[in-house]
Amino acid sequence: MGSVTTYDASGGRRYRKPDHSQTDKRGFRTRRDAELFLASVEVAKNSGRYIDPTRARVSIGDWMNKWVETRTDLRRSTFDRLEGVVRLHIVPSLGAIAIGDMTRFDAQLWASKLTATQSPDSVRKIVNLLPAGLQLAVDDGRRPVNAAVRLNLPRQSKSHKKFLTHEQVAALAEAVEAKPAGEGFGLLILVLAYTGLRWGELSGLRMCDLDFRR
Fold it and tell me: Fewer Cβ neighbours under 10 Å: the N or C end of the chain?
């Protein structure tokens, strides 16, 4: 349990943390003020919401960089994307804020400003990294709650896919085949249209891969 002690400067009161180490929380004018603060800390401890202020001083920039370093479970391409988002979009705007001072308004304002330069889909991909990193801070006892969850984000754009008819596929294949040096490419159009192969799969297809009996 924490404690209240008196120090020399005009009878001021200083608070010691529950682990009995000294804290910067000092300067209470009366013992009652100090005891009320101590009581609030004990309530936070008992409810699991106590946060040591000294552990919440790390900046958002430093914390997010450390969080990226822990993501050894990701593929290299995904890791590089996370590192780029933190470096280009999070650190410049939020990097100097102490992790304990980060508010929901700070996170929402940052997310809203991204809409001026990013598409709705890109905003969501960028913003989703912040709550992921802050959740580790919550789990590590550096924040009581995650300030970046359930932010108001722009609606994702819906893509409208257009599908060709059989006649249109045939006309496209014939037009491609008729072009100079287009011989054989009409067949590629038909294979793509009727097998559902992606281009990378088609380009890797070889004669030995085909089972003509089946």
Answer: C
